[in-house]
Design goal:
9% strand; 612 residues
């Protein structure tokens, strides 16, 4: 190895050390490492920025837009209800994540699957008061494990199978006599490479054992970092009135069937039915169209109420605003002493006319206000929950009428009427990409375009939902991988380890797996696969044994990036939503890397046709 190779390894060690022992954001640390490589001349600026043009980065960025469309229409809630349900414990929630994600990942690329599942699992953790850090790593790992069960489950398998097909075609051509001085073309129906479910012999046992490890052991190693949402003692206790839309799917359902019994951070206090008050509502009480439901709870839970299909604000004032509800959001304001409406009721003060906003709820020192919204007399320091255009914040941020003006994130009412349309767009993207009709990037771009054209999400929402920290971190990890490849550091380390095998096929297979895992954790899955494939083929040729066990070992190991967030792009995607640190991946991922290695090396040589 040359001087550049040692610099690359040194920078990589520094990056890992900073990530492991500090809480500095991953994207900052990775960009810092890339900067050092550029300053030392190991890679050119064009190579440093090359990750931004990588199809994987672009795909993830576009999938954020697709996810925004599904979320903005309430389609996420439909997915969550069907797949995730409403678990009451960490064990139940983890099982609800592991089982469907592992199965789905075998039939679709795992990157869009994780992008699709992050929002509903985030919502699930809030509603069920389960820390997101207990669920996000299992989501990524289940997607990776499920992806090893078929050739289309992960791009790594597709990459390695493509390399194998090229190798076998060249080997077949080299064995044929020349015809008129040219190599013969193989018959069109001659099979090269692996079939769709050949990898299942190893992938399925690995997925089952890996999921069992996550469920029984991993959950004890995962951190339990509660978000602010977990704290139910919130001084902003709002009383908000919602109405059951007569045409909604909630009409005719019981309180329990409608999912309104075990809401987190909010409870149903009473029902107003045609002027008759029903207090201490039974879970078996059937809802009717026009019922007015009185909820008491914290602000984040009130936002969740706004997203339940079939519930609408009980105040008619909401529907008198000129702006469509899909273009509004929820805003909190604190009333000042100089507000001209102080001392008047909300109705008499003509709040909607004066501020072009509607008061949905009022919080006052944690006390429950039993009056209807229009009859409440405003006092200084009252906190109001408003529905208004986002421009309200800019117009009144410096107003003397309010002490504080704050927009609530993700509070735009969903476009429920477009929920099925957004899910159809998502399903079409999955089917087209899984069937190989289009690569995942153009399929995702078409889906994102349709989300915007059909107004499943707005351009503003699409921009806001792109997680640039994730994209920058992934792009920077590709640049680090480029440095390790071009400097010769990765190849030098790989050859040194493989040279230790001393001719034993089993030992060599284990080393090929281990070195590929190491390369995956340090660079990226596809780069590790491309790097290790020729070395694995050469090793099998030198040992004069079947090359397929070594090909499968590279496939499995290049997907087994469990021990670092940069080992696999789905790990980076859940890094922020789960509130993780670098050490969290090391703690749970290293044993899983070893476990999948034992399964791979132990099973592969016994698969029919793959033996040494």
């Amino acid at each position: 190895m040359g001087f550049d190779a040692y610099i690359s390894l040194g920078v990589l060690a520094l990056v890992f050390g900073v990530l492991l022992f500090t809480r500095i954001a991953a994207d900052v640390v990775l960009v810092g490492g890339v900067t050092l490589l550029v300053l030392t001349g190991v890679i050119a600026p064009q190579q440093a920025l090359g990750g931004l043009a990588n199809p994987a980065v672009a795909t993830i960025g576009v999938l954020f837009v697709v996810g925004a469309g599904v979320r903005e229409t309430g389609g996420i809630d439909i997915i969550a209800q069907r797949l995730l349900g409403r678990p009451t414990s960490v064990d139940a929630a983890m099982w609800r994540v592991l089982a469907p994600v592992t199965v789905l990942s075998a039939f679709m690329n795992n990157t869009p699957l994780v992008a699709m599942m992050i929002p509903p699992i985030s919502d699930l953790s809030k509603k069920c008061k389960i820390s997101a850090s207990k669920l996000m790593i299992p989501l990524s790992y289940a997607a990776i494990l499920g992806g090893t069960c078929s050739l289309i489950g992960t791009s790594t398998n597709i990459t390695v199978n493509g390399l194998l097909q090229d190798h076998e075609r060249r080997a077949w051509a080299a064995a044929q006599p020349l015809e008129n001085g040219k190599a013969a073309a193989p018959p069109a129906n001659m099979p090269f490479g692996m079939r769709m479910f050949d990898i299942t012999w190893v992938g399925l046992p690995s997925a089952l054992i890996g999921c069992a490890y996550i469920y029984f052991v991993g959950k004890r190693l995962l951190p339990d970092r509660q978000s602010a949402m977990a704290e139910l003692e919130d001084p902003r206790q709002y009383t908000v009135e919602m109405m059951v839309d007569p045409a909604s799917p909630l009409a005719g359902k019981s309180i329990e069937e409608a999912g309104l019994r075990h809401l987190q951070g909010v409870y149903l206090a009473e029902i107003d039915r045609d002027g008759m008050i029903l207090p201490a509502v039974s879970p078996q009480e059937r809802l009717r169209g026009g019922d007015r439901l009185l909820f008491v709870g914290i602000v984040d839970s009130v936002i969740d109420l706004q997203k339940i299909r079939g519930l609408v604000p009980a105040t008619n004032q909401v529907f008198k605003l000129a702006t469509p509800r899909s273009m509004r959001c929820l805003i909190e304001v604190v009333v000042s002493e100089s507000c001209p409406i102080v001392g008047k009721t909300i109705r008499d003060g003509r709040f909607r006319t004066t501020y072009n906003a509607v008061v949905l709820a009022v919080a006052r020192n944690g006390k429950r206000l039993n009056q209807k919204i229009g009859d409440i007399v405003l006092e200084p320091a009252d906190t109001l929950l408003l529905e208004a255009q986002p421009t309200f914040v800019d117009h009144h941020r410096n107003s003397r009428d309010f002490l504080l003006v704050s927009r609530l994130d993700n509070s735009t009412p969903p476009r429920h009427e477009r929920a099925m349309l957004s899910l159809m767009i998502l399903a079409t993207m999955i089917v087209i990409s899984s069937a190989g009709l289009l690569d995942i990037l153009p399929a995702a771009m078409a889906a994102a375009g349709l989300m915007l054209i059909t107004r499943c999400c707005t351009v503003t929402s699409a921009r806001r939902n792109v997680d640039w920290e994730v994209l920058i971190a992934i792009a920077a990890s590709f640049a680090l991988g480029t440095a390790l490849e071009t400097s010769g550091a990765a190849a030098g380390v790989a050859k040194a380890f493989i040279g230790m095998a001393q001719g034993n096929p089993w030992f060599t297979l284990a080393i090929v797996y281990g070195v590929t895992v190491l390369a995956t954790e340090l660079i990226s899955n596809n780069a590790a696969a491309a790097l290790m494939f020729p070395l694995a083929m050469a090793t099998a040729a030198n040992l004069q044994v079947n090359h397929l066990p070594f090909v499968v070992a590279v496939m499995m190991a290049a997907s087994a990036g469990f021990a670092t967030p940069i080992g696999y792009q789905t790990n980076l995607m859940v890094y922020g939503p789960g509130g993780y640190r670098f050490s969290d991946y090391v703690k749970i991922g290293v044993p899983l890397d070893i476990l999948i290695g034992i399964v791979t090396v132990g099973i592969t040589p016994f698969v029919p046709g793959w033996g040494f």
